[in-house]
Amino acid sequence: MNDPNHIAHKKPMYPVGPALWDYLRDHSRSTRLPLVYADLLRYDSLMPQRDAAGRETLWNTVLLRPSDQADLHERLVAVYQLLIADGRPIDYLRVASIDYCIYGNSQPFRIKILNLINDNHDYYYIKKPDASRIYGLELEHLLSPNRINYMVGEGTLVEEHIIGVPGDDFIAAPQLYHGNMNLVRLSKEFVKFNERCFVRLLGDMRAYNFVVDVIQDFDQVQYRIRSIDFDQQSFEGRYRIYLPQFFKENRPYVEMAQRTIGPETAAQYANEERANLRKRYRLSHEQLAQLFVVMRDDVISTPAHVAQLAGELADLHGLEALRSCTTMGQVLELHLHHVLELDRGEG
Fold first, then answer.
1. Mean pLDDT score of the chain, rounded to an integer?
2. Model pTM greater than 0.85?
3. Residue 240 domain-assigned (yes or no)
4. DSSP code at position 342
């Protein structure tokens, strides 16, 4: 494989340990759920889904036994009510469909919820819990401009749907989503997204792992690029894995930025995003400190990956203290403090 950013092996799942459970409970992320992930595995059969061109997708429609359907649908609606309304009942909701994806670590179920009054629908996801993914969700919530709504129960992770157009679909045919494309603003957002991922060490942000949200702003448009996959939070050993600009799948975004804004302007936008990250860090300083207390002692990668990333970042930053790190939590905390200059009176 010639791609230096190729991820050769599937990342293992890491259990949610007692300290992380305590953190989740203290911050209202853990709850008793009406069902667990394993309940959804008792389906009758799967039917492959196809896209508009007739090609098979990664998703399969779940077919349930009639004797199981009513009870399971009722519990799935109850989970949705917990996710968006703290368990308060919402009338006229029903499950429109259940889809299953065996690709990826978390093997998600996608639940489509329909409001019978206005035919409006929403989605949410039920997945296998993974400690590194949960750290990724928390860091996204605390350090990015995006709020993340999720819950963790016994053997189960529940996540809200993140709205947007998949990054690969968007850049392939942007006129389908907004004819008046503002290349400068989209380039600016990609630069800032690239910076956010690197600062908080979120890896594997290929175009199919993020979405583009188009926001109307008077007679112009704004863009928000949002991660939708958090499995590769602080796992890989190569630092380039944490920079979206180096993935071949993101080359159209990189080339667009090179044509549109140039390196000096890109550096300015990257500095702006670091300033925003410092502000977000200060606002969530106490909770981030609690999270790092847990993460510093947790195992969410291999010793070889930790040593490799610590060494590469030590060379990149000229920060020898990184070489003594033995966990990804230690690497991330020291890297983040250095890049955001938090030890210069900012923290």
1. 93
2. yes
3. no
4. T
